[in-house]
Amino acid sequence: MSYPVFAVTVDLVVLTVREGRLHVLLVRRGCEPFLGRWALPGGFVRADEDLAAAARRELAEETGLDGPGGHLEQLASYGAPERDPRGRVVTVAYLALLPDLPVPTAGTDAAEAEWRPVGRLDLAFDHDRILADGLERARSKLEYTPLAAAFCPPAFTIAALRQVYEAVWGESLDPRNFHRKVTSTPGFVSPTGGTTEGEPGRPARLYRRGDATLLNPPLLRRKALDDRSE
Amino acid sequence: MSYPVFAVTVDLVVLTVREGRLHVLLVRRGCEPFLGRWALPGGFVRADEDLAAAARRELAEETGLDGPGGHLEQLASYGAPERDPRGRVVTVAYLALLPDLPVPTAGTDAAEAEWRPVGRLDLAFDHDRILADGLERARSKLEYTPLAAAFCPPAFTIAALRQVYEAVWGESLDPRNFHRKVTSTPGFVSPTGGTTEGEPGRPARLYRRGDATLLNPPLLRRKALDDRSE
DNA sequence: GCAATAGTGTCTTTAAGACAGTATTGG
DNA sequence: CCAATACTGTCTTAAAGACACTATTGC
């Protein structure tokens, strides 16, 4: 039995929160097709490489990050016949959530890499759609997992965690109710014992990620957007 | 720039509820590798075919179903280098939820097709893992979407819908509280006007799917299992 | 009548939303 | 002292859990 051949790529939706806004990592394409256009970072899966390994490799190449901290998960796959003019290419998209780190622009494939606030972007290929799916995934994951901490450094304040929610959801939350919810949900965060110093106002206690993987009950947005099927 | 070539398949986790238990559609493999072993239905994506179209085609081929009713969504992709002894094959798994229909065993690829209660199965390739991921997806989707109705015929009773939840989650729910929740959530179900006939006990009103896509607030399991990252 | 299943009402408990008030820093 | 931010407590409200009760059929 014979079958068609495909190329397989991984593309990354890399998100971070900086200056109170949600940003996505983009690269300017240095080769055809879509030369000069902005796109999600990504590349071909190698001959003997697992999909997740390819995603981790690309992430490390683009951001210089490889250790723990942050979060990487598979998002979805895209394989419309005309999505890449070079031929039949299926891409497996991954979603990465990272603390706000300076990005070493010295990526290997990309001419330039840059954090851009999410919004109306006009990306190469079907990357606008992939980004939209990644954003919706990130927004809904904050509801029922403690993953917001992936956007924070190892030790963070409750206020910083709340600002992550506010940036990702685009709505403001009551600091007092948020504090109560986070600290009273077992395994969401655990105190490090330290506090902030040198900030205006009363010093805040520092926390690290807890060991819970699921929030029960969840922390719901007011207006949940539609999810996407098929 | 050269890059490795892959074959791309779609595999289907097709679920239904029959006799109060959750069942998955399996086929016995009629060719190597894993000849004679049970596996998820699936096949190669054609040269000019979208991934979702391939999934719909395979579903139609295996179940004879093609119209509306039921639900089909992308689940995840699997591409470990050694997952298929024939070479580098990436599979895009889809999850289908169907009402309990007789399956015409005259599938094209498969020697036999059969509904099997979910549980300890020993499937070909990495299909045990794919099935486990599909089950977890189905379980969690019932929490925050009205998708349970995809397991039901076009008109159904609240009790039938509850039995779907009980089969998929493996726990029993209070019929009265369930009734209140379902009928008071806007867009979950809408009455057809009809009732059951000839059943023991008081006739039950019939409902069809509502137009909501999200349940807010959700209908939570007691014990949510871990989700799976990366 | 009785068994069976459908559907309603009510009380309790949990947790979210709103928001007053207290605590601890820097200036 | 005041401004600023962190944190606690209280009241109200929404909604789940438990469960008594009524409704409508077949026998």
Automatic annotation (TrEMBL), chains A, B:
Region (Disordered) location: 183-206
Superkingdom of source: Bacteria
Alphabetic keyword roster: Hydrolase
GO molecular function: hydrolase activity
Protein name as annotated: NUDIX domain-containing protein
Domain called Nudix hydrolase: residue spans: 3-137
One Pfam family named in its UniProt record: NUDIX
